[in-house]
Amino acid sequence: MLFLILTNSLIAGVYSSATFTLVNKCGFTVWPGILSNAGIAPLSTTGFALQTGESKVINAPSSWGGRFWGRTHCSEDSTGKFSCVTGDCGSGKLECAGGGAAPPATLAEFTLDGDAGKDFYDVSLVDGYNLPMLVVPQGGSGVNCSNTGCVVDLNGACPSELRVTSSDGEGVACKSACEAFRKDQYCCSGAYGTPDACKPSQYSQVFKSACPHAYSYAYDDRTSTFTCTAADYVITFCPSPNTSQKSSSGGRTRDPIPTAGHPSTGTWCTKGSKWAPTDLVGLGVMHHVWTIERVLFLSQYGPRETHPPTWAH
Length: 313
Prior knowledge:
Strand content: 15-25%
CATH architecture: Sandwich
Order of helices and strands: HEEEEEEEEEEEHHHEEH
Structural class: alpha+beta
């Protein structure tokens, strides 16, 4: 009997480590996308439509890691191919099926049951911004178990050289400086591939000023990584009631409204999309991934000399 109880408990732990509740408070439809980290099985869905006011609960297994984002201005063409103006995952279908978000896109990133059994999570603007997002842990515990996100509508305040507009001139997304200019100092690559060499730019500071707890560039981990133990998570698109955009069709609650952190430990490659592995847009996220690994190391062993990774892409 004890064996059966332990077995059932282990099975429950493996298959129901956490739940993610995605909520759409935008005044338009959002199409969430989900990508598991490299080597981790996909969740029960990788993409779906979420109408205004709707929510959807997704179960994640123990040790799952990956990211969530919102796609906007999505439609099907005459051949049935599905695509989105922002956050498109390149699958040509509603389900992303292993494809990641084409920048710019706001990302909510998670690694469950990591170091010391903690969940690591953040909201990242390293690949740019397209939607306000808020992550709220529920039922968890920990000193740094707090709300995080970017709840400001940055599309209106986006510098003109970073702005992405729709066919009618509406600002629908804001690029990162790395994506816009493809220079090492913005991508934290080449000679700028260490935390000491890669500093905040005037552009990343625009993101940081608006969303102080969100990742604004690849090495912005000191104020941007959050941890919880045994929590579920609510991810809300457009959490502020005054956040608006034109139609795009085509625990524990702690701080009332903060903003972002980080933990993806998989390699970022957008399969089956126009974003090739060699694109510099991936470098920001890849450095960002390495930063989380550095955070985990420091939590166990303390400071050490940092060395940039040698990217396979």
